[in-house]
């Protein structure tokens, strides 16, 4: 037999302690770098998302309010709310259906409602669209009804406005389309709220008159049960109100994370059709509130927007609110957030179209 020479295998060697320590150190450095990149990218994403959020909310809120303010106090071919006679029973100084104020702006001072204390409230009245129906024939002088082209569109409790461009009256429907007769009745009495104070019109509206639905819209910043604030809208129950029209409907959220809203009104003090001074709106119950708001031609609105997420910034940021202030210190309007969220202030100016056109 032939002897087989056994081969020797070299022993397998491992890492030395020094090599192991060097490799671990390099690994830790690499891991720390990756973690830092991840944290930086995450912070950049959070900031980018917060900026996008507040910009979207700010633009949307400013756009809605600017459009609505421009259309405030619009009564069709009647130039102002002072030319519209209100046949409804009065309901006090805070009456929702006080149509003598086409525009109403005031700081909220009611600590019992959902509106953020100190924020400003904007109420606008007018007509928003075309006529519902036309008057078909002239009624008797003392009639409590109108003959219209289609009375089936209305129901008891609806608030309507009839206008022929010379006169206009607001009334509440006490009966409509009874037995298909296309009559809209505006009598006194009954169980309607607020009801009609008088049944007669100042004139016999002829067949050139038209019937509209007036509107009452209130914008404010309100907080929910969890303290989350939003810009909300409430509309008066002009139609489908079961006979009660003297209240606002359910608040509807328009833009989330609006923390506050402030206004400045541009007042025409000499009736020349131009703004002479910018001032804070009067208190709701101020004696001169009606006169000042009737002279208001434009409105500046500043809204404070907060990001949805906390911990956007390392520290609390400072912001100047309202936006028309020249903030240099706390005394001049410079504020510091009480958290690390992102805050932005958006300010816009809108003229009241129906009033500025009067001076042209």
TrEMBL record:
This is Type IV pilus assembly protein PilW. The keyword Transmembrane helix applies. GO terms for biological process: type IV pilus assembly. Keywords: Membrane, Transmembrane, Transmembrane helix. The chain crosses the membrane at residues 20-39. Pfam families: N_methyl, PilW. The lineage of its organism: Bacteria, Pseudomonadati, Pseudomonadota, Gammaproteobacteria, Pseudomonadales. Coiled coil: none annotated. It comes from the Bacteria. The keyword Transmembrane helix applies.
């Amino acid at each position: 037999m032939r002897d087989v020479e056994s081969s020797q295998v070299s022993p397998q060697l491992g890492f030395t302690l020094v090599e192991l320590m060097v490799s671990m150190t390099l690994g830790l450095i690499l891991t720390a770098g990756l973690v830092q990149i991840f944290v930086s990218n995450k912070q950049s994403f959070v900031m980018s998302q917060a900026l996008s959020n507040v910009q979207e909310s700010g633009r949307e809120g400013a756009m809605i309010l600017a459009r609505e303010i421009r259309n405030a106090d619009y009564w069709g071919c009647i130039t102002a709310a002072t030319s519209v006679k209100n046949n409804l029973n009065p309901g006090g100084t805070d009456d929702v259906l006080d149509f003598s104020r086409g525009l109403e702006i005031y700081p909220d001072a009611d600590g019992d409602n959902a509106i953020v204390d100190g924020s400003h409230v904007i109420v606008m009245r007018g007509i928003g669209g075309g006529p519902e129906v036309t008057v078909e024939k002239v009624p008797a002088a003392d009639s409590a009804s109108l003959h219209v082209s289609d009375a089936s569109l209305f129901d008891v409790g609806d608030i309507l406005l009839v206008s022929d461009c010379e006169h206009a009256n607001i009334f509440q429907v006490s009966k409509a389309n009874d037995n298909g007769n296309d009559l809209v009745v505006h009598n006194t009495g009954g169980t309607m709220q607020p009801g009609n104070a008088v049944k007669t019109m100042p004139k016999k509206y002829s067949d050139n008159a038209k019937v509209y639905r007036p509107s009452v819209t209130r914008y404010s910043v309100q907080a929910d049960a969890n303290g989350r604030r939003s810009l909300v809208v409430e509309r008066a129950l002009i139609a489908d109100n079961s006979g009660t029209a003297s209240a606002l409907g359910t608040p509807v959220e328009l833009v989330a994370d609006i923390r506050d809203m402030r206004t400045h009104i541009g007042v025409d003090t000499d009736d020349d059709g131009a703004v002479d001074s910018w001032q804070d709106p009067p208190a709701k119950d101020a004696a001169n509130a009606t006169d000042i708001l009737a002279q208001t031609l434009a409105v500046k609105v500043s809204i404070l927007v907060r990001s949805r997420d906390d911990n956007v910034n390392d520290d609390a940021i400072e912001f100047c609110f309202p936006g028309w202030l020249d903030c240099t210190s706390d005394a001049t309007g410079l504020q510091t957030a009480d958290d690390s969220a992102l805050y932005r202030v958006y300010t816009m100016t809108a003229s009241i179209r129906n009033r500025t056109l009067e001076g042209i």
